Amino acid sequence: MPKRDDIHHILIIGSGPIVIGQACEFDYSGTQACKALREEGYTVSLINSNPATIMTDPATADRTYIEPITPEAIEKIIIREKPDAILPTLGGQTALNAAMKLVEQGILEKHGVEMIGATYDAIMRGEERELFKKAMTEINIETLRSYEVHDLTEAKRIATEELDFPIIVRPSFTLGGTGGGIAQNMEELMEIAEGGLKASLTTEVLLEESVFGWKEFEMEVMRDKKDNAVIICAIENMDPMGIHTGDSITVAPAQTLTDREYQIMRDASLAVLRIVGVETGGSNVQFCIHPETGRLAVIEMNPRVSRSSALASKATGFPIAKLAAKLACGYTLDELPNDITKETPACFEPSIDYVVTKLPRFTFEKFPSANPKLGVSMKSVGETMAIGRNFKESLQKAFRSLEIGVDGLDLKAEAKLNQDRLDDYLLTTCTERTIAIKSGLKKGYSLEKIQEMTHLDPWFIDQILQIVEIEKELIDATALDFDLLKYAKKNGFSDEQIGQLRGCKGNDIRALRKELGIFPVYSLVDTCAGEFAASTPYFYSTYGGQLDETRKTDKQSVIVLGSGPNRIGQGIEFDYSCVHTVKALREMGYEAIMVNSNPETVSTDYDTSDKLYFEPLTFEDVMNIYETEKPLGMIVQMGGQTPLNLADRLLEAGVPILGTSPKSIAAAEDRELFRQLLDKLELKQPESATARTFEEAEVIAHRIGFPVMIRPSFVLGGRAMMVAYEEEELEPFVNAAFAASPDHPVLIDRFLEHAIEVDVDLVCDGTDVYVGGVMEHVEEAGIHSGDSACSIPPYTLSDDMVNRIKTACTAMAMEIGVKGLMNAQIAVKDDDFYIIEVNPRASRTVPYVSKATNVPMANIATQVAMGVTLKELGLVGFEPKIEWYAVKEAVFPFNRFAGVDPILGPEMKSTGEVMGIDKNFELAFWKAQVAAGQILPTEGSVFLSAKDRDKDWIVEVGKNFSDLGFTLCATEGTAQALHNAGLEVSLTHKLSEDGSNVIDLMKEGGVQLLVNTPSGPVARVDEIKIRSEAILRGLPIVTTQSGAKASVKAIKYIAENNWDVKSIQEYHL
Amino acid sequence: MKKAIIALEDGTCFEGRAFAGSGEFYGELVFNTSMTGYQEILTDPSYHGQIVTMTYPLIGNYGINDEDIESRGIFAQGLVVSECSRIHSNWRATKSLPDYLEENGKIGIDDVDTRAITLHIRDKGAMKCVISTEDLNKESLVAKAKASDGLIGRDLASEVSIDSSYVWPEGGKADAAYKVAVIDCGIKLNQLRILEELGCECTVYPNNTDAAAILAATPDGIFVSNGPGDPAGAPETTKLVGKLIESKVPMFGICFGHQMLGRALGADTFKLKFGHRGGNQPIQDLRTTKVEIASHNHGFCIDADTVNPDVAEITHINLNDNTVAGLKHKKQPLFCVQYHPEAAPGPHDPFYLFEEFIDLMKENK
What we know:
The complex is a heterodimer of chains A (1069) and B (365). Chain A is of the alpha/beta class and 1069 residues long. Chain A has 37 helices and 39 strands. The two termini of chain A are 39 Å apart. Chain B starts with a strand and ends with a helix. Chain B is globular, with a radius of gyration of 20 Å. At the A-B interface, α9 and α17 of A face α3 and β17 of B.
């Protein structure tokens, strides 16, 4: 059965902003789907609010709508584009949920649009627990004993009459199990169930028998309409049941099952797929197995491609999303070729001859008040994958790919633990557990004891024990001979790690290794364990082989270093730039070689580059590739901090760095050198100085004048940065800064209060500069630029100011010697501007600027790095004509971290971003808010609460809301201020007082919007409660003055006007 | 652990170490891409005369248990893996893989680049080899490999078949719906287990039994099992199968049994370059065009061009290389497949074939 010819135009729903539980894997799957469908001649329209994706590049689809993913927006697109079909299975839970609403609201039926890839009923059976359980009963597959409850009374009854503690609480229809948890007693149950009921779109949670400690597996399955069904990959969770699979260390293929058990699970997976009714596409089925009896139960299934399917695709070389898209439009698996072998059909099951390990990446340091214990709700923000010939090699490579300052499962990792608390780590589901296992084994804990404490399968514990034993051999050996070094390398020990053990440098080990002739070989990921020849150059390194499969070509090549695992501050935006770099290089005729370790990305799609090396981004691993491939050079300015951190060592080792030299990059980062540069250019910087003692700090603060920004040195991402407005705040903040980075000076800057922050992205070729975008932030200076909303073009700045800023940035770029991209952050105060920071590399805003202006910045920067001039590119004196506003808004993970105060500050906390684009700022801002989940109301009641310093503007905002017909409510101080201004306001009690407070109001639906600013740097507990409650309830909350003002404007506009959607291609016409 | 050398007849040598056994072992070196199921593979009599390389690098993780045994012992001459697990972990495990190989007097080699071996075989074909822990002289070993008996033309099935017939299940099956005569060419026990499960009492005969003796027991169906070696090297078995076909009793053959039925119906067989061994092979049923994923273990194959279309229909093909994977007699209740519906190891997709055999017996009863 070939593809369908009764449909011609397909609308794909993307997954929106990067959030915990839904990251760039859906950019990978969505982009693949667009490519696959267009390859078949279909017209593809898509909706995705995330500008940082390759998916929303104008070239990826025929019509690209960067619009909020809501039923209203989708209906407008359907009306404009008249697609025949809608494909919702490649955009994660967001797309699935949106599609369900479209069906429920009758929108698809009304416009005659067919849902392909999954049916409404199948999605319901897959997602609705009771329906799912019923289906499982029909096919005799055990599920966990569970009960669906809709309120706390029911929950209490179940816990009393039906289930024993511990009880697992799983909310329905949420992302990554938000609001779920394990309850050990009734009190915990009430607390967790309440959160779960709120988090669930359907106010429904499942109380489930605990299978804590059981073995956990995932099966990635595909099925076509002819009922051909195959397993793409089996994934075993090294961390047993009790930790969300997204937060678990997972391994492919399954390691500890016999074929008999594996086949039972295989049969069950296929039966699940069939009964749920997934007719075409990929699904994920999760199982648990009792480690002593082998009792097997199904946990859940996802009737769509998922994070695991992206991992499975990268782990096996089988492109699940691409195939899923083709199956959705009518093909069957036997009609499609295996992408890698080209000769054999896609209708088979991949066999792999290596071991894949995935490690989650956490950022608890950003949310110190969050509970770092892992559970059934996902908390990691990224992941890394490593491939090795054995598990130890794979695991250690994965650890060094994590980029957390360790070189494997090494001594540095152990040093991060408090060794006195070893038992605590081993007994809790914490992020340190794997390392603690190693420490425990070294301390003499038996394998059995560790197993008892952690429930890990003994096989995995023994693997770690082997690492411990090799470590000891490396320490004890009088000299490193060939056999021992080779043995260590085969088991994944890095040069640095061996150096630590031998008391020498990694470079020394590297030299010795080369002298002894110990080099890695590169093997192919080929889907078939070598049974057939593979045409696709997708490699991993191993010391466990003798056959090198790299292929030399006559083309000049360039290595592009990627950005590694996603983390807050370094995510999909950098992968976007890397993909553009690779594309630009290929267009220019170079062979583009991609190196990256993040399985979620488009850059690690073997289709993206000429050669893909799935490797850790460390000096050792990168140099090995360099020496094998002998490229012209490397591009390090696209992948964020990860490649930049390697640049100096690479340069020292003789690697040509293409584009801006690492020396120029360092000059911009060195405070003193940068100050000299600004002096030379007669540019201003906020006054600043460093203090070594509190007394020094006091003197400086008085000289500069309050408010001052206080920050510790040698910390990343704005850790422990604070603004002291008055004398009494100085001492605690300065002390906190000293505590955050002991033995280092504290930096004190003048804080530019109520300044407008501006971001600039440009490309410089050494002679000319092209300023791609000047972005005006909505939030004031002082809030991390990654967390601010911003607008292109600027919406309040004068043309003169914009031109002065452009001139200044041009001068800086020339002076620094930028060859490629540069980002500058500038604060505008009154008629002056101050340079805050300059980074001569790709910034987070590159994709946003590129989409807002239709000028592909990363592509241009790559050409410049390769020697093309801006003049040749026609960009000298070029000004993109922008007759619209594009507003970027940040998206935060606060809903994952109960108890964390959702306020903005100098430390970045957002995981993703959205863009709203329209003819004026108000609409663009409104769309960005909606896309970010902040649905601004046009009527109802606004709760206002602000500290004294903010009372002036809060009154103004209150008046605006009142004029728009909103009713106002406030706590005492704010209410008084509003009342004094002649506004009608109802008083709500403080949380500490008796009577109805704002939390009660929220519960009763008596508040539609909250404007709530923090009372001080250390927020009061009740404020945090209020803000957290709003986040949990999904109520819009504004915590800054500028945010409140922009929101008022947007609400006013949307209350009076209609809105529509428009594709990027139409804007860019 | 002892150093070991794997020497191939084309002069290629691989160095490793013996994690079980010692001495010198001869066989055809083949590779299997199943990621699980080493116990079933080792005990599959079809591997008689062969040394198996597992492409999945970590083997032995789940040990050996008492249930997943496909015959009376290990038939493969040796096992070559990248890394044999030093501990085993599974609730059913009763012993380790190295112990099991030792007990059976076989050799296990690890610390070898199994991908290099696989790619070599893929490019050059399965070939004769010797593994030695004693003679470590490569030249001498290559000469020994060259001089060793290959598979071609040898009747290996007769070497692994049984000496006298027996009834499965032991003591008979009281409520059996069908009596099945089974020709043991090196049978995997799971074939018998499934037949039993589907209501059959099996009488298992050596492959040199007289056809008349088998037919005298008036079986409802005849089943020809899998087995090792070159089908062209077993003319006596082919003759026996030919005579059984004449009886028009419903027949079903698997793997070597399929080749025997094919040859008895006039088709030729040929040696594949490196065979099909693994649990992930796509088989298309040409009648429905549906694809099933099936377990494979064969080095020889029926030549499609020699199948007389008046006598037999090709019902299944292997989509990887379009070779014949299933035949059906045009007029008689007879069919056979090249692959392994009994799985063990491998997927259960083709299980329906056993049910079709039952249906065939039912229709013809």
